[in-house]
Amino acid sequence: MISASESAASPLAVKVTLLMVVTLPMMAFAPLSPSLPLIYAEFAGTPYIDTLSRLVLTLPAVFIAVFAPLAGVIADRFGRKRLLAASVALYGVAGLSGFFIDNLTLLLASRACVGVALAGVLTVSTALSGDYYSGRQRQAFLGLRGAVVNFAAVGFNLIGGVIASINWRFGFLFFTFAFILLPLIAANLHGKYSGAGSRREALRRVAAAERTPVFFLTLSFLLTAAYAMAFFMVPVQMAFYLRELGSSEPSTAGLTIAVSAMAVAVTSLAYSRARARFGAESVMAVAFALAALGYYFVGSADSVPQVFAAVVVSGCGYGLLMANMVVWILDGTPAAIRGRVSGGIATATFVGQFLSPLVTQPIVNAFSVGAAYVAVSAGLGVIALGFIVFVLVRRAAA
Fold first, then answer.
1. I want to staple 319 with a disulfide (CB 3.0 to 4.6 A). Which of 107, 154, 165, 264 is the partner?
2. Nearest-CA neighbor of 284 among 186, 200, 380, 170?
């Protein structure tokens, strides 16, 4: 673990920089979500525009999923800082280019490059969370990280909804933030930590790999992908669902997504206390149950205020899940493979996000957006039930 004394910057500067870094993924998605129907209208003559317009939002996810494992290997072997700086620079250039592009194919290509950049950003930021913090400090930091990400999402969605009403391209201007962040990364984050170095360290990595909890990681990555797929229904489908309910203003979609993000953020702040009191698996059961209940109410709503109330319930579940899933995985794996495990978390998360429209759109086409929310709520409920049974069995055996 990197101690405060080993870092060139103060603990506060390190924490602030890490928290700013983790807003980049949300910044790449949230401001654009309310613009999806407008992007659909802009390129309405394009074949398969129903799916392609949604892929403008979600395409980075598949490139994160593909490149995050490679980023994890690089982070473990060659260090974190250079990879993070290069990733943030690519993020800024590729993301900002969307403001100028007027061709859907080029726009999708630029979003693919954003995904490659985010693979590095997400992998390194998660690994550094494990490098700098452990135990209760790690739980508290990751809860705070979840809160910051989603408070940022509140602002991005609200602003995104407003500026989409003016011009859908304005959401791409958020990517200029990357160029402000680069000097802070250079000044505040430690550059020496690496899984590489001595022969002893290489042997330690081999031994750690042999102790890798394969079943645990497989299960946790599958659960991560499942919750990410469900969670991303809000930014991907909400604007279209509100149109089904008779509200077509992008600002309303932005406000709805912001309400969800606010619930996630507030609940994330309470995560550390919930985890300490109830344990990881009990938190999982409650979190998946809340997400399932909220989505059932979303799909059953017949007015915008009812949708607002429902996304608060689901958002509370996701607020617990975001922090708990990462802490659960990092606590259960050796430090020597933390970069690769962090890459696995990113891959699982964004495989889920990429699959979100592909899994739900057939239900939308056959029935409605509301029906898709109800169907996903059933799946989340099954996972919640699985954790409830596990907790009860473990307590009975104790």
1. 264
2. 380
CB 185 within 8 A of CB 289: no
Report the chain (398 residues): mean pLDDT per 10 consecutive residues: 54 87 84 80 82 82 86 79 91 92 90 93 84 77 80 75 80 90 86 43 48 81 92 84 81 80 84 81 92 94 89 92 84 75 83 85 89 94 93 82
What number of helices (H) and strands (E) belong to the chain?
A: 17, 0
**pTM over cut 0.85:** no
5 φ, ψ (degrees, to nearest 5): -70, -25
Q: What whole-number distance in Å separates Cα of residue 314 and Cα of residue 228?
A: 13
Using the Cα atoms of residue 54, residue 57, residue 59 and residue 64 in order, give the sign of their dihedral.
negative
DSSP single-letter state for residue 133: -
Pick from 7, 317, 330: nearest CA to 141: 330
Domain range enclosing 84:
4-397
Rounded CA separation 99/135 (Å)? 43
Could you give the C-alpha distances from 192 to 10, 80, 183, 195, 196, in angstroms and in order? 16, 8, 17, 10, 10
Q: Looking at residue 109, what is its pLDDT?
A: 94
CATH of the domain at 55: 1.20.1250.20
For the chain, what is the domain count? Answer: 1
Distance CA 351, CA 362 (A): 18
Q: Are 223 and 325 in contact (CB under 8 A)?
A: yes
Query: What value, to the nearest 5°, has the Cα angle with vertex 311 and ends 306 and 316?
Result: 135
Structure tokens at 395: 């307590």
The answer to whether residues 193 and 79 touch, using CB atoms and an 8 Å cutoff, is yes
